[in-house]
Specification:
By secondary structure, this protein is mainly α. It is 71% helix and 0% strand. Helix 1 packs across helix 2 (31-38) and helix 9 (140-160) packs antiparallel against helix 10.
């Protein structure tokens, strides 16, 4: 029997893996659960992703696009008169106000890099990408500090269930920028 051409299968598997992690956590993801969720044969998942870590890397890379889309959509970095602390606090607010499951999924995959070294480069890509964007307006060290503050604020909101306080975030980010002379 000839093999069926299915150019979207790899993407369906990634999407299925993201849904499985969102529903069951990383511990619930396997080639078998991804295949069942994508409605593809088990062999398809292992064909496209030799290891579970390869599948997780693809899922994390796709999940990382959420914050990047918020940043790109706002475009506030282009104008040097824009209050960087206010803009960044608004980015975070918009991101956290969106699909909360997506944000939680991004952080679950991001934090999985603690135990799965294969995910570390992708997790670092996210931080480096945001820092690179912020470096258009400040120095690289301050940009990295801003990313660390954003990470901390987001984790506190996600873990405590306390609503995001944009004014607080703006104040903290402004203090980091003031300490850098900007």
């Amino acid at each position: 029997m000839p093999r069926r051409h299915d150019p979207e299968r790899r993407q369906r598997i990634i999407d299925a893996a993201i849904r499985v992690v969102a529903a069951k956590g990383i511990a619930g993801l396997s080639h078998r659960t991804a295949a069942a969720e994508a409605d593809v044969p088990l062999g398809s998942t292992t064909y496209h992703f030799k290891t579970l870590d390869e599948l997780l890397v693809a899922a994390l890379r796709q999940a990382n696009e959420g914050f990047a889309k918020v940043v790109a959509g706002r475009g506030g970095l282009e104008d040097p008169r824009t209050d960087l602390a206010a803009e960044l606090a608004a980015w975070v607010g918009e991101w956290l106000a969106g699909d909360r499951t997506g944000v939680e999924l991004e952080y679950e995959l991001y934090l999985a890099a603690l135990r799965r070294p294969a995910l570390r480069p992708v997790a670092a890509e996210w931080a480096e990408g945001v820092a690179e964007q912020l470096s258009r307006r400040t120095d690289p060290v301050t940009a990295r500090a801003l990313v660390a503050v954003v990470d901390g604020i987001c984790l506190q909101v996600l873990l405590t269930g306390v609503p995001y306080d944009e004014a607080y975030a703006r104040e903290v980010l402004a203090r980091v920028l003031a300490g850098a002379g900007g």
